[in-house]
Amino acid sequence: MLEAKGANGKPIVSAEDQAYFNGLNDNLRALLNDLVQKEVITRPEHLATLLGLQLRSQKMEVLLQNRCILCHTDSEAQSAETLFSVPTGSNKPAAHMNLKEIVEDTHFRRGLSCAGCHGGDPSADFGHDFVKEWPDKDRQKNRGWVVQFCARCHSDPKIMHEFNPSLPTDQLAKFESSPHGRTLLEQHDDRAPSCVSCHGVHGIRPAKDPQSKVYAQHVPETCGACHANAKTMAGFKLPDGSPLPTNQLAEYRDSVHGRALLVRGDLGAPACNTCHGNHAATPPGVTQVSRSCSLCHSANSSLFDGSKHKLAFDQHNWPECGKCHGNHAIAKTHDSMLATGPGQLCGDCHRQYAKDHPECIRTADYFHDTITQMDQARTKFIAVSEKLATKGLDVDPINNQLTELGDALKKSRTYVHSFSRNTFQQVAAPGEEAVKRTDTLVSQAGEEYKYRQIGLAVSIALIGILMLAMYLKLRQMEK
Amino acid sequence: MKPDVDLTAEKTGGVRGWLDRRYQLTPLFEFLRHKEVPIGSHWMGWYYLGGITMFFFIVQVITGVLLLMYYQPGEATAYESIRFLTTKVPFGWLIRSIHSWSAHLMIISLTLHMFSTMMLKAYRPPREMTWVSGYLLFLLTLGFGFSGYLLPWNKLAYFATTVGTNIVKSVPLLGNWLLQVLRGGQDVTINTLYRFFAAHVVILPLAFVGLIGLHLLLIQRQGMAPPLGERTAPRGMKFFPSFAMRDALLWLACLMALAALAVFLPYGPGIPGMDWELGEKADPLAPAYPGIKPEWYFLWEYQLLKEFPPHLFGLEGPQVCLLLIAVLFGIWAIIPWLDRRAYQDKPSPAFSDFGWAAILFLTYLTLMGWDIGARGISDELAALHNVARVCAWWTLAAGVVVIVVRYLRFEHRWFILTGAVLLQVALHGLAGVSYLLAGVISVAVAAVAIVISYATRSRAHSSDSR
């Protein structure tokens, strides 16, 4: 069967697959032999489909013991709807019948195959009626059963311990407490997601698998499938009664977080679930916003917590970080945010809510001026340093100071969140010192260059005088 | 026992007398007093180029010794010591900058010296060995350049040396062994640096000093070559003091130029292959980056290698290229014996033309090596074509100027080889023919032209004698 040739004279089982077969262990080869003798595999094309998956031996063993898959991969015995096949180019099988997906499923790998969910005995012949019955006759109408069904195993610590001891078993409890869960289970609204909406059906992969629908970089798209769809979200409301917006995905994609995760591929950047949670996905309340942000921005957050603003924001019931930085559309921060002129963040807010505290405006101006001056000095000195380097001067000391200045600048931008002049000054002072030292070093380098030029001029003058004397002597001698 | 020299016999007093009694210097002084430099119909300037080259060599020795006082070859010290030297040691920057500038200027003056000697046919008898010793000095100078380049152990030098040494792999049979000898292992490592260091500061200087001694001895024994056909009645310029003083004046001018260049352009003129900014330290584990090019004087070989396909005549392309380069270098070495007309002190227009053809050949390859004309073109193939086109126009323009000047000023009438090179340039750069095919066509055309030229001449000659 391995060496059979097709109508075009080419071997049906490719050389690569034959090599794979030759590399299989004795047990698997015996299993394959047995299946051929029992006439489960009768045709070389069928064998080629199975070998072509190039599965690792453990998975191959699971596959060869699974009668469901063995029958459903025989293209002669199955119709187009019931055939499990590997998609090749334009020939796309029905989504849940993708053989590649089925064998890549995390459940399949651990031996939980078709019968694990569909019932029946996969090692024996059986009828197919149960599939239609399973597990609920009305399964297409009310999707609520799905979560209960998955939870049979996933909420049972004993069962889960056998397969993956580190996996939590509280998903159902979390889901039930979430707006998603309540909508699905209490209001029986099928627009709400069940487990399969995010994890898939056949071909469920662990969240760390880059091909998983819940892999960090795919989460925004997975959530956006519903939340960016105005039709699906129609009728859902925010606590204040306004309609639930559908622009989160677009805003997120353009935000500093979205760009980091989706464009730069920084897996440390937050996706939807980082702030909202996953199985218990809920919009963070006003008081919880800063807690979400502080998971990453801990320095800024703790400075804010100790600041005057904390109290003021709490009084106004403002979401702390979100008030200035926004939520889904968080843009890259800029020093001009500290400016106090009309139409600018600090100034506008303070003129409206803190008219009686003119010193606050002065503090903001101080922050803004100090940071801007350091930033401008840094930009200027970097250019100067490059220019001095091309002149052959030693710029290492200058660059060391610029590194120090850069560090101080970064720290100062963080310490703005203390909203305290003194605290800010402590970290800005080394930066201001570095600016002064750099300035001195730059003028020293300039003087060194001048010294070189003067030295050159003197040398040239001396050599010139010597040359002139020699020339005159030569003329005199040649006369 | 009778003393060798009668020390009591007072000839002249003072130091001169004291020395003369012991070392019999009078004949030497007499020789120098009567030594003359021939004045002919040609420009005297050419006679000074050898002296200028020697000046740059002396500068190299002095600055090299000063660099050696701080340089420490080694994985963790080579780069660091050069960095320390240029940033912390007083005038360290000046010494390194002058060493680098002087190295490049030495190669320039040496090349000019070699070509002027070639054009003036100064290699003709009895000065064949002066040519050969000068030729060997030229090869040693290239060796100095190649070995010195690696010593700062920076990134650029590391990769350029990796690429450069890789070429010897193409030498048939011995290639791999030679590579190992050159690198001190399979790859460029710190062992390579030790080897190059030994070569740069001991082996090459010893060989160079020996050869330069021979070269100068031959020149002193035979005098400088008079212009072609003026062997019999040359007027002379006194070597001492007239020529020597002029030499000294030029050396001082060069010293001035070196100082000014070192202060205003400490890392070179900014031309690729003529730039010695230290940059980052070499990292043998880092991936090689694209666009690594050798120093400007190796660019023509680099470009020629690029023009060869991977396989040619059943051999590897680089092997054939190396063979071609070896043949060209070989011909250059034995020119005194090839040029039969100069041998008889007659004008040899074919060899003058050969010299110019060589210059244009090197010019075109070097210009292409510099990627002139590639700026602003993102498509690699289009950029290659444009480089060939732009460089071809420049080379053709230079070629036309050369031919016109030679025709009008020097009344040259033999342009077959220059024409062949220009034909190759035009075919490759303007018509898009591959470099090698263009070369083959040009060589064939030149061969036919030479045969016809000789046939016509010998017919004219025989009818004259009839």
Provide structural commentary:
The complex is a heterodimer of chains A (479) and B (466). Chain A is mostly helical and 479 residues long. Among the domains of chain A are: 15-133, no CATH class; 284-332, no CATH class; 358-465. Chain A is built from 27 helices and no strands. In chain A, helix 2 runs parallel beside helix 4, helix 12 crosses helix 13 (179-186) and helix 17 crosses helix 18 (256-263). The radius of gyration of chain A is 35 Å and the shape is flat. The mean pLDDT of chain A is 89. By secondary structure, chain B is mainly alpha-helical. Chain B folds into 2 domains: 29-285 and 312-322, Cytochrome Bc1 Complex, Chain C (Up-down Bundle), CATH 1.20.810.10; 348-466, no CATH class. Chain B has 18 helices and 4 strands. Chain B has a two-stranded antiparallel sheet. Chain B has a two-stranded antiparallel ribbon with strand order 3-4. In chain B, helix 4 (78-87) packs across helix 5 (92-119) and helix 17 (416-430) packs antiparallel against helix 18 (435-465). The longest helix of chain B is centred in the middle third of the chain and has 33 residues, at 190-222. Chain B is globular, with a radius of gyration of 25 Å. The model of chain B has no long low-confidence stretch (mean pLDDT 91). At the A-B interface, helix 27 of A face helix 5 and helix 10 of B.
